[in-house]
Amino acid sequence: MSVLVMKFGGTSVATLDRIHRAAKRVAVEVAKGHEVIVIVSAMAGKTNELVGWVGETSPMYDAREYDAVTSSGENVTAGLMALRLQEMDVPARSWQGWQVPVQTTSAHGAARILDIPPENIRAKFAEGMKVAVIAGFQGVSPEGRITTLGRGGSDTTAVAFAAAFEAERCDIYTDVDGIYTTDPRICEKARKLDRIAFEEMLELASLGAKVLQTRSVELAMRYKVKLRVLSSFEEQSDEAGTLVCDEEEIMESNVVAGVAYSRDEAKMTLISVADRPGIASAIFGALADAGVNVDMIVQNISEEGRTDMTFSCPNDQVMRAEKAVEAARERGDIRFNDLVTDTGVAKVSVVGIGMRSHTGVAADMFKALSAEGINIKVITTSEIKISVLIDRKYMELAVQALHDAFGLDKAA
Ligand code: ADP
Ligand code: ASP
Ligand code: MG
After folding, report:
1. Residue 235's pLDDT is what?
2. Is 179 in the pocket of ligand 1 (CB under 6 A)?
3. pTM of structure
4. What residue spans in the chain does CATH classification 3.30.2130.10 cover?
5. Residue 233 has what pLDDT?
6. Where does ATP bind (predicted)?
7. What's domain 259-406's architecture?
């Protein structure tokens, strides 16, 4: 019998009524003859509340206890979903991550799935169970501690189960009806895509489009999982939503496929560091050891043997970064005159595999931003993306201007 994976995000299980509606959708697939693995998120807002409680109780918290607390939201929805299915006479039971077990690394708060042995669940399917409801976002470390997979991690749970069970498809039910050219909440001209290439979705996700967790796209690409994003709020056909697929399966596409943004970025500059071999290693080694996720890096040209070094990182890591740099200065590993922090920046990026063969995309991007009077603070590029750091207050304007400039409201 073929296995189907269906994942319901926070808004799709936000109330008992929403859980009921999701369960009806699952029952339809069971009636079609599928064995279904349902992955659930916590009810909308629950994980944020739990994260808040952890921070209020212990600002420099023990990451293992952070995971113990924040994983709990999914346990509630998994049990409720199983109960609702049973009420509908669909044989179902719930599993928490450790029960499967979803084996992960010990990187608490950002663990990676290592393995999902399918035997336990397969045995239950063989006994006549039709739906396995799995608490998303969580697993268990080799030390036997509960782990979580990072925010948005239920997407990754879903794709990992689809790979482990060689599922026919992995359907991600959410509050939008597919993947758009940009976040439809900030750009009303955003256009829904029927298909998007894995590489493009991977870049969009890692640059801030939270519709799919980056790691879930990586796994889907690696294990050739048929991944679809669709709405849990509308009636669906088999062609609904957006399919994430290989580039070869897409007939026509724009040079730029989409625009992504990341709101909560910070820019830090070390003023007047010695321009000598090993200086970058000393600075970024210290930041890495402190667990700071450095993103963009710019080193100025040097004058009289001294230079400025700028980097960006998530806003909530600024304190950690400042401490790491100050500690390196106290140890005598680096010297600098000043550390300037700007916590009011956002990153806006354009992504498209067409950039491999088209020149001039960067120039068009900078022209569109300049026409709106938006100053660019830092630029980085790769083969299929260009990112800029700008003042956060211009972020939405920048996304809309770029969406217009690259004609993303119209199909190629
Ligand atoms: P869920 O709780 O179902 O996991 P998320 O909030 O994590 O849902 O992801 C869905 C949200 O992603 C949408 O509501 C939308 O605001 C946002 N989003 C950002 N970029 C895009 C995009 N390119 N296409 C669709 N949605 C996007
Ligand atoms: N509940 C978790 C979060 O809000 C995981 C998820 O929903 O994917 O990040
Ligand atoms: Mg999500």
Report:
1. 74
2. yes
3. 0.94
4. 259-406
5. 86
6. 7-10, 174-175, 180, 185, 210-211
7. 2-Layer Sandwich (3.30)
